[in-house]
Amino acid sequence: MSDERVVFWFRQDLRLTDNPAFTAAVKAGSVIPVYILDDVNAGQYKMGSASRVWLHYSLLALDKALEGKLCLFVGDAKKVLTALLKQEGVKEIFWNRCYEPWRICRDKKIKDCLQKLGMEVKTYNGSLLWEPWEVLKSDGTPYKVFTPYYKNGCLRLMSPRSPESRPVRISLSEPLKNACELDALSLLPSKPWASRIKQHHNVGEVAAKVRLKAFLNSGLQAYKEGRDVPANSSVSKLSPHLHFGEISPNQVWHAASGCHKDINLQCFLSELGWREFSYYLLYHFPTLPEQNFQKKFDKFRWKKSIKSLKAWQKGLTGIPIVDAGMRELWETGVMHNRVRMITASLLTKNLRIDWRQGEQWFWGCLVDADLASNSAGWQWVAGSGADASPYFRIFNPVTQAKRFDPQAAYILKYVPELARLPLKYIFAPWEAPASVLSEAGVVLGKTYPKPVVDLQESRKSALEAFASLKGGV
What is the pTM of this model? Predict the structure, then answer.
């Protein structure tokens, strides 16, 4: 380790263990650790409110791990870094690569600028198992279907690298005088909603490791079947930790692989593969968040109903499993993956509202709002994406609820106004006789909404609308 000072730029890698660029920076000299909240370049993709709540506490945890020496800044990252390196006389900067289109564009400009000023820029992969440009078909073009991408591309290319240990000796420079306090980033909304979300989560690198251990001990062994049951604890709940880089996918991959060698493990690893595939698609097809991946959907006529959209957003559709999911999202900043598919299907298929409306709502409400996964997931459900769910696959929310929440435990957690209904009517209260509703204290349209849409009629209408695109849907 030299006496030279170097800058390490934290981005979506808010951890000290298995952080390739940070480890390299530590070896190079005394580290000035920097985080920049750059809403200037992010534009329409600046973090939503729920993500900012998570970020606030993640930075708090990171600063503690760095003994209070994390330097925070707000503004255009290019201006901040150029001024900082000049002011401090630093000649080297390290960072881990990001893959969103706006970050790629910004980072290239920053790298070119700093190199022209005689500074050395060193970048690493700290966020993905496989670099997007390394996994290509034999003809050199990118994959568009998950299974061949994952099995023929990723798994045959190379095994994910082993995670690195946290550096034993870390030399950190004293905080810069012009750095901000965390509160100056204004990440926490003034509304009580922010503190409510925090109550549901433990945030930071240490919490991520605890969460992974808990999943490996009690969730992975039943993952393949259990992951579809929203009332179960068989899902990893690692998504926000991965998004903010409090833990790396390599740490998760190798820790899981060391515990089990069965179908549950393979299913879980393939879900990590889906995360990779989303980033892969976003890298190779950067218009994914705004434009239909399948261009034939450009001709599709979406409906515009503010009333229906608002009902969906507020969890007041009158369809219990959907309302439970949307309320979970608002209350906690997360939503179970099976329920995400059900709620998204209702919006895009039964209500026929543009998938971009759902994508935008999730962007603001999810603590793990991830540009790659959010856009790829919404297009998959809508049928317009890569390797998409067929247009005729329309989730029946009543059938889905009966199958995956048979005791209505998940529904009643978030829709308690139906608690006195007999179980068989909780999934579709509009089917209950008037006498049963009355005895349960349920007045449809007053204490609980009437269905915002007729499921059978809207399914038929959606199929007819999608069939009109048969130039190739």
Answer: 0.95
